[in-house]
Design brief:
With 555 residues, this protein is of the alpha/beta class. Helices cover 46% and strands 11% of the residues. The protein folds into three domains: 172 residues, 3-Layer(aba) Sandwich (Rossmann fold), CATH 3.40.50; 132 residues, Methionyl-trna Synthetase, domain 2; 146 residues, Isoleucyl-tRNA Synthetase, Domain 1 (Orthogonal Bundle). It contains 18 helices and 16 strands. The strands form six sheets. It has a four-stranded antiparallel β-sheet with strand order 5-4-9-10. A three-stranded parallel β-sheet has the order 1-13-14. A three-stranded antiparallel β-sheet has the order 7-6-8, with no helix packed on it. Helix 16 runs antiparallel to helix 17. The longest helix has 30 residues. The chain is elongated. Bound molecules: zinc ion. Zinc ion binds next to loops.
């Protein structure tokens, strides 16, 4: 399991988290609960122009910038309960350099790289070539302004910098000139047929992922330059070739290789012999799943698989679940794109200073842009926390555990002869893990979470209907049965909510005095032993209030 490598040039906001890191973490937690062996691999994308631009602005060496933001990003993932097996960085390990150079040389040996003289934009004022984000202008595909030299955010297409309309150097603002330089080009068109067949075989993929990629294939893929005139990146490993001097690999060539090199780094940390990555990346019994955002589809569904085909010894991804963009809407304003430069986002560090992690995980899943773009509204997060997490899920757990402590000696009461309603409640809950599984297996995280919440609401209705507070005096045995049914419901709810709400699930398990092996997917509906002493009741979800000014661009 991988989640897209973020550039180590800035802070993470809720759009990043909802885009791929949270769904990946949910899926990993689910698979582990089910008993699968999973490696959850991520790290920062340290190379390329984005990090250089920040380094230039902050007057620091790029390595210092990358190390600083990588460490912050790592803290913010941890704060949200997103637990990678390894969070590395493409500039942190020699293993990554070795793997990247291996891929480059294999592609060259297999005849998929051409050395060509090409026209590149050059900034006469700063005296350097302007690859990728060093240049901006108007998109030559869709006419949107603010297109960067590597990709247009408006239409998602790749940009050929020399075709940008009104190009401008990001460093000096100068209009660039076109100069000749030598680069290595990846023969992407050679893979068109194989890519098309491979994508067409996967009709279970999300329609956005398939349609976007097949659409690009329909227009024909260009050859892509995979080297750059920069001194920040992985050196081109051709010491005998004078043209390779001062060239590094394009950041989008080395970045996805990070998934493999970080896997190897993780295996070695665990004390394995070199080559441990192959058990994951080359064994068809292992499935490779890349969680990404909308802007990364082109790289993960076309370019990266073509690189794997060119290298020739790796398996192809099993699925590439991509979310669409998550926009943001501030009170009284239009929905807008989240943007670091314009400050239109909610930053994870700011959020975690004031609020607990589960409500954000909940809200981001409940509005996940799985099929179309959606908008983050801070006041909606607060409202849904209070009306759904607190009033439905938290309330059901709390009212039963406190009831058992107050009236039943703090123990799981015995289950007597169940009524029709008791049986219906038990059957509803017994089916919950399978209903959620069926949706999770299809990467439908929103719908799976809705199953959990629907079960919690139905359970509250059952409690209200059976009125254990009245039964306590009239029919103590029936009262015990109701609370027994409810405590077992809570156990199943805790197992199925764990991927989404791990902090609340851990608190719930401790209220049930449950061992970890009781809280796995397959044991989720097994009954709690009667007579077990329960843990102290704790509040799962606090009622939240928006702080003054929260959710506005300046907060
Ligand atoms: Zn465009």
């Amino acid at each position: 399991m991988t989640a897209a490598l973020p550039y180590s040039n800035g802070l993470l906001h809720v759009g990043h988290i909802g885009g791929c890191y949270l769904p990946a973490d949910i899926f990993v937690r689910y698979l582990r609960s089910r008993g699968d062996e999973v490696a959850f691999i991520c790290g920062s994308d340290d190379h390329g122009v984005p990090v250089l631009l920040v380094a230039r602005k902050e007057g620091k060496p790029p390595k210092e910038v990358a190390d600083f933001y990588r460490a912050l990003q790592q803290r913010h993932y941890e704060g949200l309960g997103i637990r990678f097996d390894i969070y590395s960085g493409t500039n942190t390990t020699e293993i990554h350099t070795e793997f990247s150079q291996h891929f480059f040389l294999r592609c060259l040996e297999n005849g998929y790289l051409d050395k060509l003289t090409s026209q590149q934009l050059y900034d006469p004022e700063s005296g350097m070539f302007l690859p990728d984000r060093y240049v901006e202008g108007v998109c030559h595909h869709c006419g949107s302004g603010g297109a960067r030299g590597d990709q247009c955010d408006a239409c998602g297409k790749l940009i050929e910098p020399t075709e940008l309309i009104h190009p401008r150097s990001v460093i000096t603002g100068a209009t660039p000139e076109v100069r000749e330089t030598v680069h290595w080009f990846f023969r992407l068109p050679d893979f068109e047929d194989r890519l098309r067949r491979w994508i067409q075989e996967h009709d279970e993929w999300r329609p956005m992922v398939r349609n976007f990629s097949l659409g690009l294939l329909g227009q024909g893929l260009p050859v892509r330059s995979i080297t750059r005139d920069l001194d920040w990146g992985i050196p081109v490993p051709l010491p005998g070739d004078p043209d390779a001097k001062d060239k590094v690999m394009y950041v989008w060539f080395d970045a996805p290789i990070g998934y493999v090199s970080f896997t190897e780094q993780w295996c070695r940390r665990k004390g394995e012999e070199p080559g441990g990555y192959a058990r994951w990346w080359k064994d068809p019994d292992c499935k490779i799943v890349h969680f990404i955002g909308e802007d990364n589809v082109i790289f993960h569904v076309l370019i990266w698989p073509a690189m794997l085909m060119a290298e020739g010894t790796f398996q192809l991804p099993h699925n590439v679940p991509a979310n669409c963009y998550l926009n943001i809407q501030f009170p009284g304003e239009e929905e807008t794109k989240m943007s670091t430069s314009r400050g239109t986002a909610v930053w994870i560090g700011d959020y975690l200073r004031d609020y607990p992690p589960d409500p954000l995980r909940y809200y981001l899943t409940a509005i996940a842009p799985e099929r179309q773009r959606t908008a983050f509204k801070f006041e909606d997060l607060i409202r849904r926390n209070n009306e759904e997490l607190v009033a439905a899920l938290g309330n059901f757990v709390h009212r039963n555990v406190t009831f058992a402590h107050r009236y039943l000696g703090g123990e799981v009461p015995p289950r007597g002869e169940p009524t029709e309603q008791d049986r219906a409640q038990l059957a509803m809950v017994a089916g919950l893990p399978d209903r959620a599984s069926a949706l999770l297996e299809e990467y439908r995280f929103r719908d799976a979470l809705q199953e959990v919440m629907a079960a919690a609401r139905e359970s509250n209705r059952y409690f209200d209907y059976r009125q254990p507070w009245a039964l306590r005096k009239e029919d103590p045995s029936a009262c015990g049965t109701v609370i027994n049914v409810c405590l077992n419901t809570i156990k199943t709810l805790a197992v199925v909510m764990e991927p989404f709400l791990p902090f609340a699930a851990a608190k719930t398990a401790s209220m049930l005095s449950a061992e970890p092996q009781e809280m796995v997917w397959s044991a989720g509906a097994d009954p709690l032993p009667e007579g077990r002493t329960l843990g102290e009741p704790v509040i799962l979800f606090e009622k939240l209030e928006a702080r003054a000014g929260e959710g506005s661009p300046d907060s």
